[in-house]
Write a structure and sequence with these properties.
heterodimer; A: alpha/beta; Rossmann fold; six-stranded mixed sheet; globular; disordered C terminus; B: 317 residues; MetI-like fold; 2 domains; 13 helices
């Protein structure tokens, strides 16, 4: 939490410190001579792209290192336990045990000194308190449920309650807001602020600069395992001196993705669509779209929170979700609902780029071969010809020949997402459906990927793009925006209209949640 | 929880259908066999007139569907019919054989679960090290030995050469519990392969569970090692093992013919063998019904336990 006034840091005792920490695996330094101090009630942010050594540094505080790591330097923790809130809270919740299991085990160890008859009540009391501190109501039955029966927010609070029950005075929060929509981010930020207000120190590992700006007292900018710049948050964020920090802090793209002068006739039209999902044996409607159109040469952003039906819409367009009524028209001709019934030309015309690029590639085959396969399958190109075209396209997208001959494991997340774009482009699609392709990427990688997307749209004969995203910054440069909430398009219009004069309260709330931390949402 | 109840109801219904299918199939297959009880009864001098007389006496000359209807009606009242060879009620046969089989199965399972799970957890804890390699290679080796070979080996070493245990259960009747020494060798043979398969399944699941982030999280927050292993990691490792255990119990309850024959234990396996040899169709049918029911109930139980251990996995019904 930011102190209201500038407080002299020295009055605050140090809870934990890292001095000249170096962690090497196979001779490669994951973390290189990093030093930091953590004081009560402050938020220290480690900022950097993925792979910059943030998580390795954070886990070092917990005394955990990668397998086979060579560690030098010193990590000192002064009389406190350290809590850990990972990026995906569900990963640390045991799927086979009820949510309360670990909490009760922890509490029982804390009350061992009490006389036996009092232990049970005392342990339960402690658990209830920890839940209350994490803004969870124990009487709501959260403890008796399995982790998968909790919402994402509840899961995160349970993990936070575990750290609070531990009596941790330092909590390491790893990318707590990555991939979350603006309203969820807001909630997480408030929660971390409340934790810091209790005098607990937070080590925030994040590439989400809005969150860092809001929470951090102290910022360390990391690159390639080294701290390139460090200091009080306002100085680093408002007056960065290192070029890498400047690049990291650069404003998100505001220049429109598509050339407004080149918008053509209707390309893809969704008409009277109702999509259903099967849950617990029932088929419940999850998405209703009266009418939605994508024109030639434009980018249509579909914005909404998780669970709003964005991905279902995208999957309907691509023929991956066939349980729907209504029509999807491409150039005025209805597309069959199922992928299996679409002709090769129709398949090639609508291409899908998935959120998780790593999961979308076969991990054992070279990226180049997988990209080339599209041209073979969908356009009937010969193997040699397809490989040549794949190589050209990949080079065009900034991936050199040596890189794409590797298996997907040898590419970073951003590089793989470029390869996924290239794979879709080899079909020479009319419509490109991009489903959250930048979530989980750091700001620098995200910006370059979106710039690339804009280049593709602006090319003569380039595809129309449906950009599915929860992030308003990503959606803002689109030609038109459709706001999806609870399975309905609550509002759609040009970017100017949506961003400056939203008509629906939900759009306004989404804009407000983004603006509150100074996000660059400008028409 | 309502979904759970309707799931159980659906499973029970499915189980009933499965049992009915088993009953029909057994009846149809025995009908399709060449010859019948009358032929077997006639022995070495098949005299057509005598066979016809026996057929008439047994009611075998009536149409198949009438006999099936009679039999099914009887089943619903708990009447399994009458043995053709001895004239005793089939229910009595089954009850006599059930005692020794149940005893063997119970003793085996009581030892199987702790030993199998214990070995699996122990191996997983020492993954890749000496203890693990020892357990893994020993379980693989023992699993490769069939029951009849192991049984014969144990008899020749421990009964005939060393004289520690009686070689067979001959002369002890059905009161096996009063003579535990009789049970040692058969139980060892019955344990050998299931312990190996269970241990290997638990080891695999446990290695995965011990490497999972939730296990690291429990350790990180100061939960003692044994508690982490058995209360937090093990439940995740047990789901596949439960299914395997149900199959093992099923195998035990349906009379392990080889072991019962080898040690001359008057269990269901022996009853089945004799009934098949004598073409004693009512007894075979009765056994099929009992085995079918046991399989259905055990698998339902295993699915329930699996659902409890892996609540996310949808259980098909």
């Amino acid at each position: 939490m930011k102190p209201p006034m500038e407080q002299p840091m020295n009055e605050n005792p140090v809870l934990a410190s890292v001095t000249a920490l170096t962690v090497e695996v196979d001779g490669r330094a994951l973390v290189d001579r990093v030093s930091l101090r953590i004081r009560p009630g402050t938020v220290t942010a480690l900022v950097g792209a993925s792979g910059s050594g943030k998580t390795t540094t954070g886990l070092a505080l917990l005394g955990e290192y990668p397998a086979g790591a060579r560690v030098t330097g010193e990590v000192t923790v002064h009389g406190t336990r350290i809590g850990y809130v990972p990026q995906h809270p569900a990963a640390v919740l045991n799927p086979a045990r009820r949510t309360g299991a670990l909490l009760h085990d922890m509490a029982r160890r804390q009350v061992r000194d009490l006389p036996r008859p009092q232990r049970r009540t005392a342990a339960r009391q402690r658990v209830t308190e920890a839940l209350a501190d994490a803004q969870l109501d124990a009487s709501a039955g959260v403890l008796g449920r399995y982790p998968h029966q909790l919402s994402g927010g509840q899961q995160q609070r349970v993990v936070l309650a575990q750290a609070l029950l531990l009596g941790a005075r330092v909590i390491v929060a790893d990318e707590p807001t990555t991939g979350q929509d603006a309203l969820t981010k807001r909630r997480i930020v408030d929660q971390l602020a409340a934790v810091a207000a209790r005098g607990i120190a937070v080590l925030l590992l994040s590439h989400d600069l809005d969150v860092v700006r809001e929470l951090a007292d102290e910022v360390l900018v990391m690159r390639g395992g080294r701290v390139v710049e460090q200091g009080p948050a306002h100085r680093i964020l408002d007056g960065p001196t290192h070029p890498w920090t400047k690049e990291l802090l650069a404003e998100p793209r505001t220049l429109p993705y598509a050339d407004p002068g080149r918008t053509g006739e209707e390309l893809l039209t969704v008409d009277g669509l109702t999509a259903r999902h099967r849950t617990a044996g029932r088929r419940a409607p999850v998405l209703n779209v009266d009418r939605l159109t994508l024109r030639r040469g434009e980018c249509l952003a579909v914005v909404g929170r998780s669970g709003s039906g964005k991905t279902t819409l995208a999957r309907c367009l691509a023929g991956l979700h066939r349980d729907h009524t209504g029509q999807i028209l491409l150039d005025g001709t209805a597309l069959p609902r199922s992928l299996r019934d679409r002709s090769r030309e129709q398949l090639a015309a609508v291409q899908y780029v998935f959120q998780d690029a790593r999961a979308a590639f076969d991990e054992h085959r070279p990226v180049l071969d997988q990209v080339a396969r599209t041209a073979v399958r969908l356009r009937g190109a010969g193997h040699r010809e397809a490989t040549e075209e794949a190589r050209r396209t990949l080079t065009d997208l900034g991936l050199d020949d040596a890189l794409v001959r590797r298996a997907p494991g040898g590419l970073s997340g951003g590089e793989l997402q470029r390869a996924a774009l290239a794979r879709a482009l080899l079909a020479r699609p009319r419509v490109l459906v991009c489903d959250e392709i930048t979530s989980g990427l750091d700001p620098v990688t995200r910006r370059s990927l979106l710039d690339l997307l804009a280049t593709l749209i602006r090319r003569p004969g380039g595809p129309g793009v449906v950009l599915i995203t929860h992030d308003l910054d990503t959606a803002a440069p689109a030609t038109r925006l459709a706001v999806l909430d609870g399975g309905h398009i609550v509002e759609q219009g040009t970017r100017e209209q949506i961003l400056t004069a939203p008509r629906h309260p939900f759009t306004a709330a989404l804009l407000a949640a983004s603006r509150r931390w100074g996000a660059a949402v400008r028409p | 929880m309502n979904g759970m109840r309707s799931w159980i109801a659906r499973r029970l219904l499915l189980g009933a259908v499965q049992t009915a299918a088993v009953v029909l199939l057994v009846f149809a297959l025995t009908e399709a066999l060449p010859g019948d009880a009358a032929v077997a009864f006639a022995g070495d001098q098949p005299d057509p007139q005598r066979i016809a007389a026996v057929r008439e006496a047994m009611g075998l000359d009536r149409p198949a569907h009438e006999r099936l209807a009679d039999w099914v009606l009887g089943l619903l009242h708990g009447d399994f019919g009458t043995s053709l060879t001895s004239g005793r009620p089939v229910a009595g046969f089954l009850a006599d054989g059930f005692g020794p089989t149940l005893l063997l199965a119970a003793v085996t399972v009581l030892l199987l679960v702790p030993v199998g799970v214990g070995l699996g957890v122990l191996a997983a804890r020492h993954e890749g090290r000496f203890t693990d390699r020892l357990i893994s290679s020993a379980t693989l080796g023992v699993y490769a030995v069939p029951e009849f070979a192991l049984g014969a080996l144990l008899v020749s070493v421990f009964a005939l050469r060393l004289g520690w245990f009686p070689p067979t259960a001959v002369g002890y009747g059905t009161g096996l519990l009063a003579h535990p020494a009789v049970l040692v060798l058969p139980v060892l043979v019955l344990l050998a392969r299931p312990v190996c398969s269970l241990a290997r399944l638990v080891r695999a699941g446990m290695i995965e569970a011990l490497a999972a982030p939730y296990t690291a999280h429990a350790e990180r927050y100061g939960i003692p090692g044994a508690r982490v292993r058995y209360a937090h990691a093990l439940p995740n490792a047990l789901a596949p093992a439960t299914q395997q255990l149900a199959r093992t119990v099923d195998w035990l309850l349906c009379g392990v013919i080889v072991v019962e024959a080898l040690y001359v234990i008057p269990g269901l396996g022996t009853v089945l063998m004799n009934a098949v040899a004598d073409r004693d169709i009512p007894v075979v049918q009765g056994l099929a019904v009992v085995f079918g029911l046991a399989t259905v109930v055990l698998n339902l139980g295993a699915d329930l336990v699996t659902h409890r251990l892996a609540p996310r996995s949808g259980v098909a019904a």
